[in-house]
Amino acid sequence: MAGATAARFSCGRRLGLVSAGVLVCAALGVALGARPAAAQAWVGVPPRSSAPTASSMLAGGKTDPNAQMFVQADEIHYDYTSERVSAVGHVQIHYAGSVLEAERVTYDQRTKRMHAEGNVRLTEADGKVIHADRLELDEHFRDGFVDSLHIETSDKLRMAAVRADVRPGEGEGRLTVFQSGVYTACEPCKDAPQRPPKWQVKAARIIHDENEKTIYFEDARFELFGMPIAYFPYFWTPDPTVKRKTGLLQPHVLTSTYYGVGVQVPFFWNLAPNYDITLAPMITTRQGPLMMGEWRHRLINGAYAIRASGIFQSDRKPFVGTTGDRDFRGAIETKGDFRLSQNWYWGWDASLFTDNSYAPQYKVTKQGTEAISQVYLFGRGANSYFDARAVHFYGLSPLDVQKQLPFLHPIIDYKYKFGYPVFGGELTYNVNLTSLTRQQADYDPVSVAAATTAFSDGKNVCDSADPAAVKTRDNCLLRGIAGTYSRLSAEAQWRRSFVDPFGQIFTPFLSARADLASVSINPDPSTANFIHPGDDSLARAMPAIGLEYRYPFISTHSWGAQTIEPTVQVIARPNEPQIGRFPNEDSQSLLFDDINLLTLNKFSGWDRVEGGGRANVALQYTAHFNNAGYLNALFGQSYHLFGVNSYAVADMANTGLASGLETARSDYVGRVIFQPNKTYTFASRFRFDEQTFATRRLELEGRLNFDRWTTSLTYGRYDAQPEVGILVPREGIMPAASVKLSPNWSMSASALYSIDSSKLNTATFGVGYIDECISLSMLYSTNYGYRGDIVPNRVFLLQISLRTLGGTSFTQQVGGPGNSGGASSFGLF
Fold first, then answer.
1. Residue 711 reports pLDDT greater than 90
2. What is the 3-class SS of 793-809, one letter each residue?
3. In this structure, are residues 522 and 533 in contact, taking their beta carbons and an 8 Å threshold?
4. Which residues on adjacent β-strands are paired with residue 745?
5. What is the 8-class DSSP label of residue 519?
């Protein structure tokens, strides 16, 4: 007998009539007082000998003895004859964070199985959603089958199958076999749900092993936009819950004029949660196999990695006449970073190569044109900064001469600002220690004739080792000494601002600096023309006192506010001592502009220090418009008042000459920045000759930033400065644009055109697509390299990445000597 009225019997009253009544009642939640309509009850979970819950099966068979189940349905039926209990109509079973929904759920006491049918939907506690037409499970809910299954996980992974069989795994997890399954991470199209997803894997069988956390595919086809493009008899991938798992990584296909076609298939070996190995052999058609491996290890206070690669080249013809003309080529790299405390870190980077062209030709490093090996110690406090490191440079460019690159042993910087006023003002001090060694002096030409005249070895006078190539100040400058140079510098600065009743701002400041140096310069006939060779001990001191005056005039209007602020800075100090005796290694980059106009010392490093009396004058105008951007303009000049002008006296690198500061009245410098709103921006920086007002440097930039696209145009024109090695004028234009064609598609392009040489230096074009499950990108670039005198590198890169499955890339790169013919995205370097 069956009927809705059976719901009026409580579990306790039915125990005497049905021996397994507890199982029936507990499975469906029948309780005292349940009603035929919208029946619902709270019940306790039965003991292990009784049937577990539906969610326990889908959670791997684990049950909580203290959990309760809540069952809600339109009706609850009990069939005495067949010993079945059914919940009918809008059934919802809540248990331990999971919800089972169906039109009908039936528990069969005789077979110990539960049946759910009619729009079955199970939402698990972890967010996974399972849809099915029919679901059948045993009393322990650890095996069974599902018809017309569809699963959606919390991270939007989707699997579907005609039928799925669920069985216990070797451990606590389950083994689910999807027959005629489909796997994808793409959402269905909202406008056309019947359309195939962007990518999917169709397989005769898809097996999800929860113990191994792996998904296996048998007899699988990969489809892209509904088109089958690849067939795999068998492959596997970690399930979405896995962060690290042993297995193959995405392959890479590469082409090169050096090694032909290369195929790289990395293998990741997860040895432990905190260390692993990646092996990435690359098989090439011309040079044979290249082996590459990386070890990574994370410790409590940091991590380190070691990478090694090598190849026995089968064909040395492409490398004849270069450093790559050898049988074996390889490299070892290592990187580490560790925390000593909350504010202190130490670490290292180290590289060792068989030759300087191996890395760029086989693309086994991402360090650019030089490999930097260093050991460092770094610390930062609320008012202090410390950085100490020893650095070795290894040139990877064909233009590098290894003996001319310095070894720093060490370089130390320390800065401190007192957190409280000292004599009412701000007191800071800086310390720098630099020690370096170079084996061979480095020279650069100062005239076109010196740069183009070749000697017996085919090199110009500044690069040639020919004894007849004598370097003098008339044809060369000295970029770096051969020998050892050590310097200790310390500087303290104090400043305090006073504002009078009229709004004038007076800021007196004091500065004191001292330098000690030890120099050992290798004797060389040419070096003596620039700096005194041999051993020497040097010392210098530079005190300074000054006053800065500012008087901002502010006016407000209905349209906004504007400020006119004249600034005058006067500095008194002695002449710079021993100009030219201290080697200039770190102060060769001198750019006089609006940024350093009002600074105490315009030299960029510690090897030079500004001396003599000087006045810096500037006038700044700023207008802020109501909700409409701003306008800022600055114009100024620097005056040498007394003593020796540091910028007019040449050192070994001629720093200061042709800078615009070498005369009593400097060149004019300034800027104009106009941004009326978030869409338009215009900026200009310039330097004009102090006598003729001729343009010495001009930079113009315009930028448009709309909702979906951004474009910019930059123009630059720079005067020749042969005194410091810039032999010809430079003029160029750089357009760039990017557009978001749709929410998923984007496109970008940029170029750098040299007007003075009528040459395209760089050009880049890219197209990309990205959404919730797939990303595609294509990039083409041309780079003519350093100074434009290297044959161009042309790179084509195609990348595809599928969420949950990984990705792959194809790279083709053709370049001149020393430039790469391939690429790889392997590793963390």
1. yes
2. EEEEEEEEEECCCEEEE
3. yes
4. 769
5. E
| DSSP class of 474 | T
Instruction: Retrieve residue 471's tokens.
Output: 């370097």
| Cα separation, 809 vs 250, whole angstroms | 8
Of 385, 394, 437, whose CA–CA distance to 412 is shortest?
385
Going by C-alpha positions, the residue among 611, 643, 437 that lies closest to residue 540 is 611
Q: Please state, in angstroms and as integers, the Cα–Cα distance from residue 707 to each residue in 742, 743, 767, following that order.
A: 11, 12, 18
| CA–CA distance, 569 with 662 (Å, rounded to integer) | 18
Nearest to 815 by CA among 768, 783, 774: 783
Distance between alpha carbon 435 and the CA centroid of its chain, in Å? 32
Residue type, 466: D
Confidence label for 79 from pLDDT (cuts 50, 70 and 90)? confident
Buried b (16+ CB within 10 A) or exposed e, 342-364: eeebbbbbbbebbbbbbbbbbbb
Nearest to 477 by CA among 646, 267, 650: 650
Contact 161, 178 (CB under 8 A): yes
pTM: 0.77
pLDDT at 348 over 90: yes
Give the span between the Cα atoms of 587 and 694, in whole angstroms. Answer: 27
Mean pLDDT over all residues of the chain? 84
Q: Could you identify the residue written with the tokens 């507990």?
A: 26
Q: Which residues contact 18 (CB under 8 A, 6 or more apart)?
A: 24, 80, 83, 109
> What pLDDT digit, counting tens, does each position of 43-64 carry?
333 333 333 333 333 333 444 5
Cβ pair 676, 693 in contact under 8 A: no
What is the arithmetic mean of pLDDT over 117-137?
Answer: 79
Query: How far is the C-alpha of 8 from the C-alpha of 243, rounded, in Å?
Result: 51
What tens digit of pLDDT does each residue of 453-463 get?
A: 888 888 889 98
Tokens 């169906």 sit on residue: 102
Q: Which of 116, 74, 123 is nearest to 94 (CA)?
A: 123
Give all strands (DSSP E) within 113-226, no chain letters: 113-123, 129-138, 144-152, 158-168, 174-184, 199-209, 214-224
Q: Give the whole-angstrom CA distance, residue 701 versus residue 675.
A: 12
Listing DSSP states for 734-788 in one string gives EEEEEEE-SSSEEEEEEEEEETTTTEEEEEEEEEEEE-SSEEEEEEEEEE--GGG
How far, CA to CA in Å, does 390 sit from each of 341, 344, 412, 738?
21, 17, 9, 41
The whole-angstrom separation of Cα 610 and Cα 482 is: 26
